Amino acid sequence: MVASADGAVSLDGRSRGLSGPADKMIFTVLRSLADVILVGAGTARAEHYRPVQRDETWLQLRPESAPLPPVAVVTRSLDFTGCEKLLAVPRGPSQTIIITTAAAPAERKSALAAHARIIEAGADAVDVTAAVTALVDLGYPGILTEGGPTLIGELATAGLIDELCLTTSPLLTAGQAGRIVSGPSTAQRLSLAHALVDGDFLLCKYVSA
Q1: DSSP-assigned letter for residue 14
Q2: Distance separating alpha carbons of residues 204 and 192, to the nearest angstrom
Q3: Which of 19, 41, 17, 10 is nearest to 178 (CA)?
Q4: Fewer CB within a 10 Å sphere, N or C end of the chain?
Q5: Which of 116, 119, 117, 139 shows the shortest CA–CA distance to 129?
Q6: pLDDT tens for residues 127-161?
Q7: pTM (two decimals)
């Protein structure tokens, strides 16, 4: 995750304006190491997500012949406006995964099943514990979560965050942007594993204590 010095998670509605070269490099490294990339639908739409590309990863960090990590989208509405490219991945281990609810529109689920793998995790709301369990059962134990704040909050509440990689951007933004985590108040103790400095950017890795 990336945030401004005053805690904003986005600038003009997107995280891109907060990032820097080192942050982008770490983003690439983390994606290269991941088995699957988990993201909320709001973030996927706002950031115009697309499938992971070979030239955007460091293949030497992946096991030999390992497929590219798929993107798994958590969505109750099944709205892929702005991130339709996620639905163009051929069938196989890198095909997009849709994590939704039993109550999501059946016709829409049926239509999307031709373009993505569907996981039902929860009745009316997505149960993140069930979602993570389903991903692991599919053979994706290394889960990289890229947000948004609501999804991160649900994972934190469920005690499912093992590590947090946080870049602090040297910007004061004010405005109405949220934090990297939203939802019910929770307090999870973290330990600082390491800190890197790139110019005026601070890049920290925390692990669950």
Answers
A1: B
A2: 7
A3: 10
A4: C
A5: 119
A6: 999 999 999 999 999 999 998 899 999 999 999 99
A7: 0.93
- CA-CA distances (angstroms) from residue 12 to 9, 18, 38, 50, 176? 10, 10, 23, 20, 10
Whole-angstrom Cα distance, residue 31 to residue 34? 5
Give the C-alpha separation, 116 to 109, whole Å: 10
**Which own/partner contact pairs does 111-119 have at CB distance under 8 Å and 24+ positions apart?**
112/78, 112/80, 112/87, 115/87, 115/88, 115/89, 116/86, 116/87, 116/89, 119/72
In this structure, the strands spanning 143-145 and 36-40 are: parallel
Say which residue the tokens 């983390």 belong to: 30
| Residues 100, 118 contacting (CB under 8 angstroms) | yes
Q: Which residue carries 């958590």 as its tokens?
A: 74
All structural domains of the chain, each given as residue ranges with its CATH number in brackets, are: 2-208 (3.40.430.10)
The DSSP annotation for 63-128 comes to PTTPPPPPEEEE-SS---TT-GGGGGPPSSTTS-EEEE-TTS-HHHHHHHTTTSEEEE-SSSS--H
Q: Residue 4, Cα to own-chain centre: how many angstroms?
A: 19
Q: Supply the pLDDT for residue 61.
A: 94
> What does the DSSP 8-state code read for residue 40?
E
Nearest CA-CA partner of 204 in 34, 23, 32: 23
